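Lab notebook, bench 4. Continuing the backlog of folding jobs that were queued last week. Each job is logged with the same field layout so the records can be merged later without manual cleanup. Today's entry covers Two component, sigma54 specific, transcriptional regulator, Fis family, a 450-residue chain. Filled in by technician R.K.

JOB TYPE: sequence-to-structure
TARGET: Two component, sigma54 specific, transcriptional regulator, Fis family
LENGTH: 450
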Amino acid sequence: MTTTANILIIEDDALLNHMLLDNINKMGYKTEGVTTLKQAREYLSKHEPSLVILDGRLPDGDGMDLLRELNDICCSTILLTAYGSVKNAVEAMKAGAAEYLVKPIDLDELEMMVKRVLENAALRQDYPFYKNELKRNAQGKKLMIGHSPALQEVQKLIDAVAPTDMSVLIEGESGTGKELIANELHQRSERSNRNFVTLDCCTLQEKLFESELFGHERGAFTGADRQKKGLIEGAEGGTLFLDEIGEIEAPIQAKLLRVLETGQFRRLGGTKDLMADVRIIAATNRDLEQMSQTGTFRLDLYYRLSAFVVKSPPLRSRREDIPHLVEHFIKNHNFSRRINKTVTPAAMKALIAYDWPGNIRGLKNMIERAIILSGRRKAIRPEDLSFRSQSNSPQKGVQLSYEDEPSLEDIEKDYMQILLEKYSGHRAKIAGILGISERNTYRLLKKYAL
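JOB STATUS: finished
OUTPUT FIELD FOLLOWS
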C-alpha cells in the first residue's frame, strides 16, 4: 500500500511557484505553495510535509535558515538556487538538504529528483522492516506451524480479515504465538511491503510509552533535545502490533482510541495533528471485556479493538501439531546443526501428553534444553526432558534441587516455572503469591522467556 506524499513549495517567483505546483500535482502528489518564510513557518506550524522544495533566497530571509529547521523535524528538502556553486552545494548538504538544483529548473530533472528523494526517505523508514525480512528469510523461519483443526480455524479467520484494514484483537494465553498471528495478518495484507512494528505494552513507564508510541517534540520533557518520531510514524503504511494491550494506562488508552476513530494523533508536547496511515493489531492474555466492566480498561476502546477477534489456541488443544513444532525447533537450533537430532517415540509420546502451561514458548525452551542434555547422541530420550508435576494440589515447602550452587536468577526462574504450571499460567494469582504487580510479574516471565 502506498501513501500520498504532501509537498510544500516555497518559491517567491509567483510564475515559477505556479509552474512547480502544476507539474508536481500531475505526478500525483498533494502540493501547497507559499512565497515567503513567514508563510512557510505558518504552514509548518500546522502541517508536516513529506518534502519541501525551497528557494535559497526569499524576500524576508535566507532559505538556508529554514533548511536547518526542516532538518530538525526530519523533513526532506530540495534546495533551489540561482547562485549555483560547489560552495553553496556543500553548505546546503551540510545543512541537511537531500538534493540541490540550480535555476533555471529543468522540470524533467526535478521530477526525477522528487521521486528519488521520496523513495530514499521511504527506504530509510522501512529499513528495520527489510532488515527483519532478510533475517527471517535467511533463517528459513516459517510463521504458523501445524495442521490441527484449531490452527486451521485461526487460518480461516486470518484469510477473511487480512486483506481488510480492520483492527484485530488477538486473545490467548502467554506463549501461544499471538505475535506470529499478527505477523501472518500483516504478511497477507496489502500493507505487507511496509513495516510491521511491534511494541510491548508492558515494558515502559507511561511517559516513555507515550513517547515511544506517538513520538515527542523537542523540549517536551527533560532530555528531549530533539524531535523524535514514534512507532506510529515508523509503521506508516504498514502495521502496528501492540502486544499485551491490557497493560496500558488510561491516558494512553484515550489517545489510542483517538487514533482508531480519527486516524490522527499528536506527538508528546506537540500541537500539530498528524495522520496515522497504520493498521493496528492488538494482543492480550487478559480478559479485556471483564476489565472494561470493572473500569480498568476503556469500554469504547474495547469495542473498537474487538470488532474482529482471533483466539490463539493453547498448545494443549492442538497436540497433533507438537511433532511439527518439535521438528522445527530442532532444525532451527544452533547447537543441533552438527547432529541431525531426532526424538524417540517414547519422548515424543511424553511431549504430546504434557499440558504445556507455557504453551509453544515452553515447548521451545524444553527442546532447546533437551538438545543440550542429549549431548552428541542423535536421539532425544525421555530422560532429556525436564517435565514438572502437573498436579494442581497445594505444594507446601517446594524444594528446588541443583547439582551445583545455583545463582539467584536460577532459583527465581525455576520458581516462576513451578508457579506457572501450578496455576496454569494465571498471572494474577502468581502476582498475588509473589507480592508484586501483574506488570512486574509479566516482566519476569519475559525476562526468563516463560
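OBSERVATION: The two ends are 36 Å apart (CA to CA).
SIGNED: R.K.
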